[in-house]
Every structure is written in C-alpha cells, then in structure tokens.
Design a protein that fits this description.
CATH class of the largest domain: Alpha Beta
CATH architecture of the largest domain: 3-Layer(aba) Sandwich
CATH topology of the largest domain: Rossmann fold
Structural class: alpha/beta
Number of domains: 2
Strand order of the largest sheet: 8-7-6-9-10-11-12
Length: 313
C-alpha cells in the first residue's frame, strides 16, 4: 500500500505522473470544479496544479491531510501563500522548466508584431494580397526593453542580441552588475519606457505589479512602441492599453496572458493591432515534460522530508 495520496487537478505530463505513481497513489482529476475540489481534498496529502485551479484558504482548510502544494510551472499567484504558511503547508514550483518555451514564444510574438505575420496569414486565407499594406519594421538596430531580467527575461535578451537588437533591462531585484553579466544594459524604469522601441514584460503578478503598465506608464513610452507580455495577466491595464493603441502611442501589442482567463472577446483581444494567444507560453512538449518531472520530484521530497530546491512558501 502506498504511503501518500496525491491529487492532480490541471493535468500533468506522463513523465511526472510515472514518477509519482512509483511512490504514491495518484488521482488525475483534470478540470475538477472548485466545489468538487473542496469535497475531496481532505483525502489527499499533496495537490499538484497549474494555473487554472485556485488554491484558496478554504481549500487548505478542507485539506486536513494536505502537506504539499505543487505548481507545475512558475507563477503561484493562484495559490494563497499566506494561508499555506499559516497551516504549515509547503508550496513548491518548477521555475526553470518552462523558461526556454516562454522565451521562444516571446520572441515569436516580437517577430509577429514587427512583420504583422498574423494579419498577413489571415489575409492570404481570405484570398487577399496585402503586400503593399504590410510594411513592417526590422528588429535589427532597435532597442528592446526587458522589465524583469530573471531566467526568462535573460533568455529573451540573448535572442534579441542575436537579432542585432540593443537590450536594456530593469529589475529591482537584480544588481546592475548581474544584469550586465546577463547581457543587458541596466537602466531605470523611466529610461526604459523612454528609450525602448519594443518592451517585453517578465515579472510576477504582485500587489506592486498589478496594472503597472497603465496610463502613467504609457505616457512615458516612446510613440509607436510595441509591447509583448507572456508573463501574467493583470500586469497590463487592458483598458489603458486599448486607449494607447487607439491614440497611436502603442503601435501594437502581443498578449499571451490576460486579466481574466479565458477572457472572451474583449475590446483588447478584438483590437486590430493586438496579437492574442491563449496563455501558451509553457505549452511545448519539452517544457511540459520538464515541469512534470521537476514538480513530481519536488512534491515527493516535501512528503518525504527531503531537501527542497524550489520552495516558495
């Protein structure tokens, strides 16, 4: 008989599930509702989620056996960390597993913005030849401002440098010397807004970063700036973004994340100068395999009382 019982609520690659099954009883209940989660969580020692499941204080209170919560990915804004601390539940994540996937999507969105690739494809599929209308801009020689220069931001910077871009970065948690070592020129947030032709966001959603990119930030940006966000919904004030697009302050935006997910057909998503993707930053076969392996081993380490690599709370 296995010692532990683990619940998966948002799916997990078979690589990780196989690791878990060697040491625990595993229930994969992908898509479980919030009400049903409350009804069954008392049976489990650990819970593994992605971004969909909201792990609230009520869930933790109902989880009388709960010792570990694992986030198969980076962001933990869907987990009540304070409630976890109060109840002695350890929260872990897999912060390195999806960095390359998110960085590659970000760069794909940068290229799509610069050359209007989605519009060109849609027109061709409608039998239209918009060659004269589709004059884009080159990345070479442009300045990319990266806000948040951690693992993902650094990988985006490497790719931008390879395309001949000038990379500047702002990150209040990383020293200027370290930003330079990672391949970017450290600048103030105000200078980044003023100098960047493209801006890419790579910070977590916190009280300080919610709606950080709003009217005041847009007012400081260069006219015709292009914006990419594959970080977290809620960092950009979507109402202010639409205003900036309509005024011409922002030439285009590419968004993989949204304040509400799924968002429906909002004004921002339907805007002709917005490229929208459904939070697919980590959605590569390789990233999902790595994330599942990392979080499976980390959750089992919590349950066994072993040293942890990525404890969040």
């Amino acid at each position: 008989m296995t010692e532990f019982k683990i619940l998966i609520t948002d799916g997990l690659d078979e690589t990780g599930q196989s690791i878990l099954r060697e040491s625990a009883e595993v229930d994969d209940r992908s898509g479980i509702s919030a009400d049903d989660l409350l009804k069954v969580i008392a049976e489990y020692d650990a819970l593994i989620v992605r971004g969909r499941t909201k792990v609230t204080a009520s869930v933790m209170e109902a989880g009388s056996r709960l010792k570990a919560i694992g986030r198969a990915g980076v962001g933990v804004d869907n987990i009540d960390l304070e409630a976890a601390k109060q109840r002695g539940i350890i929260v872990v994540n897999a912060p390195t597993s999806t960095s390359i996937a998110v960085a590659e999507l970000t760069f794909g969105l940068l290229l799509a913005l610069a050359r209007e690739i989605p519009r060109a494809d849609a027109a061709m599929k409608q039998g239209k030849w918009l060659k004269k209308e589709l004059e884009g801009v080159e990345l070479n020689g442009k300045t990319l401002g990266v806000i948040g220069f951690g693992r993902i931001g650094m990988e985006v910077g490497k790719r931008a440098s390879a395309f001949g871009m000038n990379v500047i970065a702002y990150d209040p948690l990383i020293s200027e010397d370290e930003i330079k070592k990672r391949g970017a020129e450290p600048v103030s947030l105000q200078d980044l807004y003023a100098w960047s032709d493209f801006i890419s966001l790579h910070m977590p959603l916190t009280v300080d970063t919610r709606n950080m990119i709003g009217r005041a930030a847009f007012a400081q940006m260069k006219d015709g700036v292009r914006l990419v966000c594959a970080a977290r919904g809620g960092i950009i004030d979507e109402t202010a973004l639409v205003e900036a697009l309509n005024s011409g302050k922002v030439a285009g935006a590419a968004l993989d994340v949204f304040n509400v997910e799924p968002p429906g057909l909002t004004e921002a998503i339907s805007h002709p100068r917005v490229i929208a993707t459904p939070h697919i930053g980590a959605q590569t076969a390789e990233a999902q395999s790595r994330a599942s392996e990392d979080i499976a081993n980390e959750v089992l380490s919590v349950l066994r009382g072993e040293p942890l690599r990525w404890r969040v709370a």
